[in-house]
Amino acid sequence: DTGVSQDPRHKITKRGQNVTFRCDPISEHNRLYWYRQTLGQGPEFLTYFQNEAQLEKSRLLSDRFSAERPKGSFSTLEIQRTEQGDSAMYLCASSLVSNPQQYFGPGTRLTVT
Amino acid sequence: GQNIDQPTEMTATEGAIVQINCTYQTSGFNGLFWYQQHAGEAPTFLSYNVLDGLEEKGRFSSFLSRSKGYSYLLLKELQMKDSASYLCAVTNAGKSTFGDGTTLTVKP
Description:
The complex is a heterodimer.
Chain A (H helix, E strand, L loop, with lengths): L4 E3 L2 E4 L5 E6 L6 E7 L6 E7 L2 E5 L7 E4 L6 E5 L8 E9 L2 E6 L3 E5 L1
Parallel strand pairs in A: 2-11
Antiparallel strand pairs in A: 1-3, 3-8, 4-5, 4-9, 5-6, 7-8, 9-10, 9-11
Chain B lengths: L1 E4 L3 E5 L4 E9 L4 E7 L6 E6 L3 E5 L2 E6 L4 E6 L8 E9 L2 E4 L3 E6 L1
Parallel strand pairs in B: 2-11
Antiparallel strand pairs in B: 1-3, 3-8, 4-5, 4-9, 6-7, 7-8, 9-10, 9-11
C-alpha cells in the first residue's frame, strides 16, 4: 500500500482551458473525497464518493466542476473553462466507511494564467 | 451549516506546552478531527474524538466537549518540527468541514 496518489502534482493552464486531475486512493478504501485549498485556508469540501456513487457535492461548486469514480477505484476531477479563481491546491483523500480517518494525497497544484 | 473557529496564529517556545482551541457550530456531528499540515504538504491525521473527554497519544492530546461545541489540541514538549498549521475538522455523514487552521510557530 503506497498511500493516496495524485497526478499531476502541478498543472499550469491558461484561462478557458479544461483540466483533469486523477486520484488513486488506498486500494481497500471505499470512500474518496475531493477538496480545494487556497493559501491560509483549510481544505474546502468539493465532493465525495462511496464506491462509485457520488453521495454529496458542495453547493458552492459551479457546474464547471465534475468528478467521476467509474469503477469505485480511481477518481477524476475535471474543471472546464478554467478561471483564475480556480488556482488552488486540489487535494484528494480516502477512507473506509467503518473508519472516518481520511488519508490525504500530496495534492495537485493548479495555476491558471 | 457548519462554522468552525480557530485562532489564526500562535507562537510558543521549544519544550513548552501549547493549547490550540477550536469551537464549532454545526447542523450535525459525528466526530472531530485534528490534522497537522506543514507548508506545501498534505494534512496528516493527529486525532479523532467522538465522545466527550480527553484522548492522549504521545506528546499530543485532544479534548472534546460536544455540549459546548469545543475542542482543543494540546501539544507537550514542543519541538521545532511542530511548527505547522493545525486544522480542526468536524465530520457529519461522511463529509468533513475544516477550519482555516492555526499556524503554530515554535521558537528556540
